[in-house]
């Protein structure tokens, strides 16, 4: 009787199984690696990280908190004043809050400025001797913050090659952009705190939305 074409002798069966084991092991190995990557991503998201997945350093996280606190505290009043087209109110507010912008000595604000939606300076309160802040509207970060409707940061040089870091935060009132708040931080402030430029640029700030009728 001729052997069935579906029948394998023991030696053939052993050879077939030996070929299948490496293939199965490779599939299992890939699945385990994928599971490990997913687990790491979930842990990183839960811990609060930069955009590149790294956990925020304490100094950078503290700076983020300080800047966000000022965005939340200043935006509502400034958005309302800009909506009323009252530059005097804007200037008065900046003069009032600037001396108190560093209440606990944690963050030295180099300057505050408010621009309209065309990038034109409305008011500014800056450290004595600081020049060049009136040209802030020329930087792409300002127009990008208005277009994207969220705070963005950048490094730039003022007159005299003084390097500063700024956060440009749109002033929203009833979902309409009324202007931009600029918070300027001296580059030496970051250096002394041990915060690198890369860390500063990777921070994420929230947009404050005023709902005042």
Structure description:
There is one protein chain. It contains 6 helices and 6 strands, in the order αααββαβββααβ. It is 46% helix and 21% strand. The protein has 2 domains: 11-47; 58-210, Beta-Lactamase. Strand 1 and strand 2 (121-126) form a beta hairpin. With 213 residues, it is an alpha+beta fold. It starts with 9 loop residues before the first helix and ends with a strand. Strands 1, 2, 3, 4, 5 and 6 form a 6-stranded mixed β-sheet that branches. The chain has helices at residues 10-47, 58-83, 87-97, 140-148, 187-193, 197-202; strands at residues 109-115, 121-126, 152-158, 162-173, 176-186, 209-210.
From the 3D structure, determine the CATH topology of the largest domain.
Beta-Lactamase
Mean pLDDT across all residues, rounded?
A: 77
**C-alpha geometry:** globular
Number of helices: 6
Number of strands: 6
CATH class call of the largest domain: Alpha Beta
Classify the secondary structure makeup into a structural class: alpha+beta
Radius of gyration: 28 Å
Largest sheet: 6 strands, mixed
Order of helices and strands: HHHEEHEEEHHE
| β-sheet strand percentage | 15-25%
Q: Uncertain regions: pLDDT < 50 for 5+ in a row? A: 3-8, 34-49
Task: Compute the separation of the termini in Å.
Answer: 95 Å
DSSP helix fraction? 40-55%
Number of domains: 2
Q: CATH H-level name of the largest domain... which superfamily? A: PAS domain
